[in-house]
Amino acid sequence: MTRKTLEVLAVASEIYPLVKTGGLADVVGALPAALGRQGVAVTTLVPGYPAVLAALEKSQTVLVIPDLFGGPATVLRGAAAGLDLLVLSASHLYERPGNPYLGPDGRDWPDNAIRFAALAAIAASIGRGAIRSYRPAVLHAHDWQSGLTAAYLAYGGPQPPASVMTVHNLAFQGQFPASLLPRLGLPDNAFRFDGIEHHGMIGYLKAGLQLSTHVTTVSPTYADEIRTEQGGMGLDGLLRYRGDAVSGILNGIDTEVWNPASDTLITARYDVSTLKEKPANKTALQARLGLTIGPDAPLFGIISRLSWQKGLDLLPAALPRLIAGGGQLALLGAGEAELEAAFRKLADEHKSKVSCTIGYDETLAHQIQAGSDFLMVPSRFEPCGLTQLCALRYGTVPMVSKVGGLADTVADGHTGIVFDAVNEAGLAAALDRAIALHHTPRAFKALVRQGMAQDVSWDAPAKAYANLYRALAGHAPQ
Ligand code: ADP
What we know:
CATH superfamily of the largest domain: Glycogen Phosphorylase B
Largest sheet: 9 strands, mixed
Bound molecules: adenosine-5'-diphosphate
Number of domains: 2
Distance between the termini: 10 Å
Mean pLDDT: 96
CATH architecture of the largest domain: 3-Layer(aba) Sandwich
Strand order of the largest sheet: 3-4-5-2-1-6-7-11-12
Number of helices: 18
Structural class: alpha/beta
């Protein structure tokens, strides 16, 4: 039976491997290939940042916009890194090097509200047929930067195409002053509690949650948490109101990019049947980071944004426990200046036992995944989390807090260590358990093997997205 191809337009502000600041890019970059195997053709609309324009191949102009918020713009259709892209090229909005959201002073660009309103406005007009011969059945917006897509659809005329809004992190909501409204090109009556208004401001994510046909988030447990007052960050009432139109679909990881059997960034390749090769990666990592070389010290890896969400401010107090247990720490992260300074200091104080690399480094991330015994993720909240999925694939035991997607993907005592209380005592107790486990090689290896057997690919999530799209577009599920 041949399957009918369903056309989906994804809208996102970052996409791996072209522009990435976090898990959002990983998801947006990996889903199209996985969905392709489900008979869904995904084209992704992204801003024309310099890195995107430089990578774009075989591009042709498919739309010309003489004035998009103060300057000319074009939409280019092309491909990069195997992805089908529509690129919104508008030099006055996007041709700025480096981080997609921050200027050279490390602060948000002052015109971010306009930069991402433009992205959403163009997405909606494409959804309504602005490009001849391209009519997506579903628009899929990711995070607040694309949140106004549903608003431009809803207020742009009758019978808009179906839309999905995916929340990758409810903490980032895109709130802007109400005075912006006249510039957005939305009607005045959009500024209502059941439109784009949010606590007297314009809420980009709120608009998406309110006006999209369906809302997803990246794990079932996070979908429950954000409907509670404790986890809802002011949006729980709306999310409860949306009822069955809110659901959780777990993220996967790109199992080609994250494959210990073929990973050229690590010292020794291995799979579950050649686990004896894995320790060479630990030795290489210890050597690279200036840690004492040897197989016995339980080595804890951390790869993370450094922010309150991630719970890493608890680590300094727990570190003596780790060191007393003979452990080592390999941290890679960037973020809040205070945390960066605290970790630099710890590394200075405990040379040969603690290494903290401040910055963003894909290669080192792979080497930490392959070389560590445990991967620590003590998040206070975690929509899904990707690093624990990579750890499972690399036979590195995840040690995680019982929140969001971490709770959904790590089984305590079976594939990892899961702890309840995200505080100093909770983290210290989890460290004790991990160190004891490492001293019991049979039990430790069982967790490693069970973790490596877990399916962390996009196969099942892509099926769930495909079924959702088909339901929204009125197609029968496959
Ligand atoms: P979040 O999106 O909240 O930052 P996730 O766990 O969902 O967290 O995704 C983080 C992604 O970014 C993972 O692919 C992880 O490997 C990567 N990452 C985070 N920090 C760094 C870093 N300093 N260097 C390299 N990769 C990093």
